[in-house]
Amino acid sequence: xHGSLTVAFKDPGAMKDRLRIERPVTVQDATGGASTTWxxxxxxxxxxxxxxGVEAFAGARLLGKVELAYAIRWWPGHGVDALHRFVDxxxxxxxxxxxxxxxxxxxxxxxxxxxxxNRG
Length: 120
What we know:
Elements: E1 4-5, E2 17-28, E3 34-58, E4 61-73, E5 85-88, E6 93-103, E7 108-115
Parallel strand pairs: 1-6
Antiparallel strand pairs: 2-3, 2-5, 3-4, 4-7, 5-6, 6-7
């Protein structure tokens, strides 16, 4: 369902960044209201692949957005998809996952993320 991407597995020493992958959890309060919180799935070593800044106008406001990709080690049954997000533990910046693409031989999982207008 995620497609296939050919990515040569790199030396684990090249994975210098740390990411915390999180999933949304809906919790109900005492009054019956619901809110979304984020629960850690896994903290992983990562290798930054690309980064791009994008600016767009929304009405009279200029909005900035960062798009980037990280490669992490693939693990069986990861279930990571566009409902998840990740936190760059270096600067605590939150990125929405746009896509999670498995490498051809399940060596890596490439996470495409955006920051700017986050889901939480």
